[in-house]
């Protein structure tokens, strides 16, 4: 790709921000916009295959900042075993795409279950199986604490502190954490936990928290500046913790998805420069 | 009131659960249902005045388990001073109603502000003014941590641990905390914090967490058994912490509000007996 504005050297487009784009379109869009990295999703990658996706990215001179996502590890029995198998495939895909970061959304309560402690234990058990497999392939499982409003149905991992308690059972090259502003901005303990995270930080994701939340709360993620989050303290905190990786912009939002993706990238660059990099 | 089933001796109807009922109707409804306590709200109390409400409750032989609510302390300047004045009135009303528990919803970010740390500091400053005033009148300010999804617009107090950090700056008879299952059920640290809370627990409220959340997330509170929360561990934890007060059922839910309130009370008693008191 052509020369990148040095201020954008660590900016990454998470592919879900431009949901209608295929891998090829997203790669081309990043090149046009001068964005040097991309966070890929398994489903669009599967449409063309890992090798083809890896080649597209490499030929364009982009980095893959992460693969989304593994996880959903809270079921037991056959469903649990199937989840482990699927996660091994996700690790292989991450390795094939040349990224060392597999984002893990660990899953909510199994249908009908109210056993939150049990679900959290099953995540720990599954990680014990998956972590060495990932490490041997040069991939780190990046545990993503999700906002507590998703505890029942998406992720029983709800705070950065809880994610670190779990990650620290494993070697640092096998299990890390995701710092995503949307999910943790409210946490009164977040600054201490980011400092504690140190080299466990495998990914830094930004997007804003909107109110009122939309009818589908999964889509409450907004463009930086459209919500309530003050971003520079988070950027500085991850930097001070030693993180030198990319900043991924990951937005699930019906209005953003309805906008021309090139326009979304232009806005994203502008907001990143003025609201994330700001002092 | 007539003899109460001893198993219901600590059950309280929070008035918002039967939103359409006036104070008189709610008091009469509790008497019919054999529910010995009621949590009142300021707005319906204001319709008849504190003295008349206190007399209705006393004549019916009920207890007032709490008054909802004070708070909204995050503004500064003139709005902040007006909030303090309003909170002093709320304390007076609680005293007039014969309850020692004023539930505090501390408020979200002021409009346009992204200064979460500053908002939290203003809550602390306001409490320092209000706590002695409350204590002198035999009223305890019961800090309610709200679910983090309300951090931006309702309450910058998001966890029980955070509420206790704040409450512990004041004498125990002046500032306590609310343990509300809906708001804190997801918290991996909740058991340790309930134990820590001890005699700071000023109120125990129960209702369930529903998914999918409704379009207005304020109304995601469900009847016990309709959602994801396992109640007995919470009841046992507050008991083990030394709490001997009432268990208030507080449900904001469009479907519950559309149901005949006597029917709501019947369901509430049944669910309380089988899902909250269960071993």
From TrEMBL, chains A, B:
This is Sugar phosphate isomerase/epimerase. One of its GO terms (molecular function) is isomerase activity. It holds the Pfam family AP_endonuc_2. It comes from Micromonospora viridifaciens. Residues 30-260 form the Xylose isomerase-like TIM barrel domain. Keywords: Isomerase. InterPro entries: IolE/XylAMocC-like (IPR050312), Xyl_isomerase-like_sf (IPR036237), Xyl_isomerase-like_TIM-brl (IPR013022). The keyword DNA-binding does not apply.
């Amino acid at each position: 790709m052509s020369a990148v504005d040095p201020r954008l050297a660590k900016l990454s487009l998470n592919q879900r921000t431009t949901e209608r784009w295929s891998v090829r379109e997203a790669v081309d869009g990043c090149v046009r916009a001068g964005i040097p990295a991309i966070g890929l999703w398994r489903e669009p990658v599967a449409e063309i295959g890992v090798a083809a996706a890896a080649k597209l990215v490499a030929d364009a001179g982009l980095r893959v900042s992460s693969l989304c996502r593994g996880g959903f590890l809270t079921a037991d029995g056959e469903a649990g075993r199937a989840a482990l198998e699927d996660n091994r495939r996700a690790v292989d895909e991450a390795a094939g795409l040349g990224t060392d970061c597999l984002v893990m959304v660990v899953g909510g309560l199994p249908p009908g279950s109210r056993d939150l402690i049990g679900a959290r234990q099953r995540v720990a058990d599954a990680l014990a199986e998956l972590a060495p497999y990932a490490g041997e392939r040069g991939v780190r499982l990046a545990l993503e604490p999700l906002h507590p409003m998703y505890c029942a149905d998406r992720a029983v991992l709800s705070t950065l502190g809880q994610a670190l308690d779990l990650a620290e059972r494993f070697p640092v090259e096998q299990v890390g954490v995701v710092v995503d502003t949307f999910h943790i901005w409210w946490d009164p303990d977040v600054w201490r936990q980011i400092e504690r995270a140190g080299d466990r930080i495998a990914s830094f994701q930004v997007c804003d928290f909107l109110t009122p939340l939309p009818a589908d709360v999964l889509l409450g993620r907004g463009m930086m500046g459209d919500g309530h989050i003050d971003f520079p303290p988070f950027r500085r905190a991850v930097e001070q913790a030693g993180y030198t990786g990319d900043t991924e912009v990951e937005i699930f939002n019906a209005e953003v998805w309805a906008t021309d993706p090139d326009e979304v990238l232009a806005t994203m660059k502008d907001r990143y420069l003025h609201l994330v990099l700001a002092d």
